[in-house]
Amino acid sequence: MNFRVAVIGLALLVAACEGKRADVSTMPDAAATAAPAVAVAPAMPADAPPPEGAEAVDAALSAAKAFNEAAAPALTAVGEQEAKIRAAAARALAAARGAESAAEGQRTGLTARVSAARREADAARKSLLDGQAKWKVDGETQAAAVQAAVEACNGNEALAAYAGCAALAAEQTLMTTNIEALAARYQAADAAYAAERAKLEEAAASLALAALR
Question: Would you put residue 48 in left (φ > 0), alpha (ψ -120 to 50) or beta?
Fold first, then answer.
């Protein structure tokens, strides 16, 4: 009796193992059920040619950058020339103040100092005028070239996506600011020269009056 029970138990155990193997064999393969790979668009070659019109954009961008980089030194130069004019006027007035009490021989030296101060102020004034004329022409020329390039970017879909067009728009904004700043600075220098020139004339007149006494 015990032998028959053992045989029946062994048979049931074997049947159970066979069922597990069948279940495993019918399970779907993980690799087979994985999500399909997403297709990736090929990257644009690094040496892809730029769009038509990019050369003109690059030229305008390069010129705009050069203009903007030179604007700050130009503003500094205007201040330096204005300072020369102020210093010259101050020296002329200082010389004229001692003219009345100076001897005739000393007045000659004072007159020479005033004349030298006037020449220095005039030279600084000329430098300002030359610089103003140059920057006015350069600003108008570069602004027109940049505007033409920007319009080309806006009118061409392929060119609009070009990196140079985005950079050009930023440089155009900066250029407009610099042109306005330079114009205002030269205008202020003109006003300063007018005020200092009056002092120079006053010094020369004081020396002339002192010579008559």
Answer: beta
pLDDT in tens, 82-132: 999 999 999 999 888 876 666 566 777 788 888 999 999 999 999 999 999
Q: At what angle do helices 54-97 and 104-154 cross, to 10 degrees?
A: 160
Residue 67 CB contacts under 8 Å (≥ 6 apart), including other chains = 138, 139, 142, 175, 178
3-state secondary structure the chain: CHHHHHHHHHHHHHHHHHHHHHHHHCCCCHHHHCCCCCCCCCCCCCCCCCCCCHHHHHHHHHHHHHHHHHHHHHHHHHHHHHHHHHHHHHHHHHHHHCCCCCCHHHHHHHHHHHHHHHHHHHHHHHHHHHHHHHHHHHHHHHHHHHHHHHHHHHCCHHHHCCHHHHHHHHHHHHHHHHHHHHHHHHHHHHHHHHHHHHHHHHHHHHHHHHHHC
pTM: 0.70
Which residue type does 163 have? A
Q: Are 146 and 168 in contact (CB under 8 A)?
A: yes
Residue holding tokens 């045989």?
A: 7
Which residues, in sequence order, are CB contacts of 161 under 8 Å at separation 6+? 51
Say if CB 168 and CB 200 are below 8 A apart.
no
**Contact, 128 vs 193, CB < 8 A?**
yes
